[in-house]
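2024-03-11 09:14:02 INFO receiving multi-entity request
2024-03-11 09:14:02 INFO entity count = two
2024-03-11 09:14:03 INFO echoing inputs for audit
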Amino acid sequence: MHRLSPIDSAFLLVEQRHMPLHVGGLILFRPPADAAPDFASQLANRLRESRRVAPPFDRRPHTRFGFGFWDSEQEFDLAQHFVHLALPRPGRIRELLAMVSRVHSAHLDRAYPLWRMYLIEGLEDGRIAAYFKIHHAVVDGVAALRLFMKSMSPDREQSKTMPAPWEIQTRRSDATLAVPAPAVVGPMGLLASLARNAVKATPTFVRQLRHTWDDYRAHHPYLATSVQAPRCILNQSVTASRRFAAQSYPTARMRAVAQKIDGTLNDVALAMCGGALRRYLADLGALPDESLVAIVPVSVRQDDGTTGNEIAFALANLGTNVADPVERLRLVKGCMDYNKARFREMSPAQLQAYSVAQLLPGALTWLLGLDPKHFVANLVISHVPGPRQPMYWQGCELDGMYPASVVVDTMALNITLISRHDAVDFGLIACRRTLPSVQRLLDHLETALVELEHALFGTPARAAPRRPEKSRPRRMHRSSRPAAPL
Amino acid sequence: MHRLSPIDSAFLLVEQRHMPLHVGGLILFRPPADAAPDFASQLANRLRESRRVAPPFDRRPHTRFGFGFWDSEQEFDLAQHFVHLALPRPGRIRELLAMVSRVHSAHLDRAYPLWRMYLIEGLEDGRIAAYFKIHHAVVDGVAALRLFMKSMSPDREQSKTMPAPWEIQTRRSDATLAVPAPAVVGPMGLLASLARNAVKATPTFVRQLRHTWDDYRAHHPYLATSVQAPRCILNQSVTASRRFAAQSYPTARMRAVAQKIDGTLNDVALAMCGGALRRYLADLGALPDESLVAIVPVSVRQDDGTTGNEIAFALANLGTNVADPVERLRLVKGCMDYNKARFREMSPAQLQAYSVAQLLPGALTWLLGLDPKHFVANLVISHVPGPRQPMYWQGCELDGMYPASVVVDTMALNITLISRHDAVDFGLIACRRTLPSVQRLLDHLETALVELEHALFGTPARAAPRRPEKSRPRRMHRSSRPAAPL
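2024-03-11 09:21:47 INFO inference complete, emitting structure
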């Protein structure tokens, strides 16, 4: 039994009926070519034979004298945590995403350790899927990914002999996995982080704030602030229902665009998000005149591989008010380059304090109701580096890992992407009711990439988008009747 | 938009994270002999074409000025309410019950009308299943059954042309269905009922209370009171996870036993519950010396077929302290006969007031903490008369309807049974963590029936139990490790 940290406690405290605070992920696998027809059932049976459970998978929250503690579960009930599911026919990706949307919407029972894994069979293309959810009070999104990755191997044969994900003891350091940056924290994470880091502030930090103030007064073109994001339909209260959308885009295509403008893959990903959001909001007649602003988590983790919420935040202008795709990309790149140059001047502790401090003007403006037309930021977009080589789990090749993060009141959409050696996997999670047909963003992301390729290389890209679904999704037409789930 | 009644409001108000207050039911159907392999998919597609939604399926709760109202949903989103699922292989009843246990554990999203229907394919025996859940604030368990029954017909061909369940307008009266008694209300229902009925109390009512007091002082053998139920493992706080267990027993066998002792099918059902609970608790070393007491809802509905919570409650001694099965049955029958004789002397309004008044001594004792060893009652056992002839839905023959009711803190188990022409369908819902391996009660119910047959007819019953599962379930051995779900 050990005490919950204030941040972990906060995730349990602020969780509400309509706002579960677990993180999740959908992972696709390609079974071996010689797999039996009942491969998934056999795999489920093998995993069910598991008799051990390692921390943090055995952690159950427990309140005593008003404080939160982690108990170690004594009567571990695997059937509560590992669930075998099947898709109804025809077993398309749209049925899978609808299923993940539903299970991601449901709360975890606090009487048990706060995680559940679903093994899903029945995809028409023969792939199998795993959806994993774990409470943010236990680990953040990246740590969850890390945990699951530990049960994978770059070697197919070796992967067959590896234990179930929940059997693997978590060490503080595991350099071989090299999944560096943590992902998302909620507003409570910010506040706790502020309290922790305020004491670490130094004259350097104050100098940095003055620097930002000078740039703000000089209207620096690449400085994004927390008082400029136009409040839009993304910034509403949410309901308890989620919609999950996911798609992969070839790393090579995104990298080619990045190289052409001397930028990074992350710059291209953010510009794609900007382009897609511009189109999505315009279709709904809800595109603000000013550009959307995203909070972009940046890792300040030292190379010792320790876990924890060692995060800083950059603010990125997404250029949703810019019609030209290349101009939008250059704006995003300029913004991120500005952030990087500023961040290089700070130590990790200074950077964390600075990250929170830059959000304060927007947060105060919002709390005091001074400017109802703006909000701290419009959404969080996280980019998590994934494995750099083919990986295997229980003999199956990893074929996509799509994060399903947290949606909260005032931020009804979250985009998290994982970049792997050959594909960048986008996971979008949104409030089903607040944001209609959010799956359209997948097409808009592709369109945004094609537009960049067309403008930079003169020809539309030849490569078809790599989507979980084999066939192109049918274009959803606008109607007063909400579309079916994906 | 109309105002929620105080009882309906109460169901929304007292609902908690670990205690959802929706009622549900699992319904099994046998498709026609010439059904195509994709019969379920085709049915799902047909139901998805539904374009209408009738009250109460369009009702969404809404709070204004601190009062609760029902709004009519303007943007009805069928994909949120109708879900097509498939069982993983091998598609046994245990996989189905595990799935229903999980979906029954999850809350309904209050931003939408408070119901959901799952169509489940993949049972190895070719049957299909529907699981339906609707919030207790909308309708009680019996009204929910009524609603679903309206989309069925005694004629197979006619049933194929009937609309989806949610399209059928509810009328205040529908005598043809003849599903008389409402089922379960929670403690808030009791209190609201008390307030409503106190004003209806008359001298007759006071005379009845004096009658009960005299019988109590005279130690009447068939008077069950609300101060005698031994507090046991059934009367604990619950977690958010449920376990659902279901089984059918032939009506003919139960009726034969009833006739032998000049009792009713309901007497036999209660005695079976008593026998099964005795064995279940004894196996756990938790059998109290005193008999368990059940709250048994009794319909006081007039023949005009109006809906609503027109319920009274009888208290029944289950004879769990009696080893002999026939002696236990005679005790239960005596208790129910005593109740009926008393109830006949009262008008419906008097009966409702009396029902609540008889629970008051136990409720006050509990609230004041005067007797921690006893509780108002140990569980609720409801018996709902079902259809008296074969019924069809979308061309499929009805083959079992198992209620999944509400579990609350202090009552971790609910048993509701539906008696049809050829089978009595028991639905047991329990807190998964508080009551280990509650599915064992299904075997114990069968054993209790066999014991009665053996004692009354001299021979063990020849007929095999009619169970959703074809093969006998493997006997679960006791171990420190909780058993897999069903």
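2024-03-11 09:21:48 INFO post-check: The radius of gyration of chain B is 22 Å.
2024-03-11 09:21:48 INFO post-check: The interface with chain A takes residues 17-18, 38, 40-41, 44, 48, 75, 77-80, 83-90, 95, 98, 102, 105-107, 109-112, 121-122, 239-241, 432-433, 480-482, 484-485 of chain B (CB under 8 Å).
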